[in-house]
Amino acid sequence: MGTVFIAVVERNIRGLPPELKGRFEVVSPEDLSARLEELSRRGVRRVHLAFLGPRPVSLKIPPGMEIRDGREALSDLEAFPEPAEIEAQSFEILRGLCDLSRFPQALHPLVLRLVHAAGELALAESLLIHPDFLPTARRLLKEGRAILTDVEMVRAGISRRLCEALGVKVYSALSEAESPPSGFTRTAWGLRRALEKYPEISLLALGNAPTALLEALKILRESPREVAVIGFPVGFVRAAEAKLLLAESPLPHLTNLGGFGGSALAAAAVNALLHMLHEEKAS
């Protein structure tokens, strides 16, 4: 048998779910000697130990077993596959871990990319996806309609290559937010200005500011337009409320419950849509 990686963690902090420990199994200090003996009987000859807390006072190491410090594990872990292979492996692992049963098959690539971006399996449980979101967003991007993000981080995370292939422009609300009047945040004011200035904007990708999402809902109620909304504002002030208001609106939307969100999720949602269209075009 090859090398085994063990993280030695005190019982009171062993809350990490088994599937998220990577190559390290988690063992308590009290159980470590017995686990090493079991591994020795199975033919394991090298074990990397990473101690997250105090080391055991006494440790019985089986004869012929090499114990290495967790810091030395880098030498055994450094042989990474190519980037495309890493992504493929990640999604293969995710398909075995993520419960997609409540989503239609067509949404699985989108949900998996979101969970992959978040690094959090529980995200799938809190996603709210309007039945018309996927067909509407795909069609609008296929028509070359523009995307509006709330902040530069979302825009930076969206694949420029895939956007260019579809002829899709990406605008940022912050770049339009010069001198906001009293009562407006920069993102809310910039979003209002951008929607007035660029009638081709039809996909909103909001991953930072709750005020931007709230302003978008207000504008779209005042001046309806064909649009799909990705709403992942993050934080503890008005983020959850803004998402609930989006979820109860008739707008084709993608959002989640609570304050968890962020620019990476908003960008990942757009990239998932772009990848779908790219694969459809290539087939």
Automatic annotation (TrEMBL):
InterPro entries: Cbl_synth_CobH/CbiC, CobH/CbiC_sf. Pfam families: CbiC (PF02570). Pathway: Cofactor biosynthesis; adenosylcobalamin biosynthesis. Gene3D superfamilies: Cobalamin biosynthesis CobH/CbiC, precorrin-8X methylmutase. GO terms for molecular function: precorrin-8X methylmutase activity. Keywords: Cobalamin biosynthesis, Isomerase. Residues 85-276 form the Cobalamin biosynthesis precorrin-8X methylmutase CobH/CbiC domain. One of its GO terms (biological process) is cobalamin biosynthetic process. Belongs to the CobH/CbiC family. This is Precorrin-8X methylmutase.
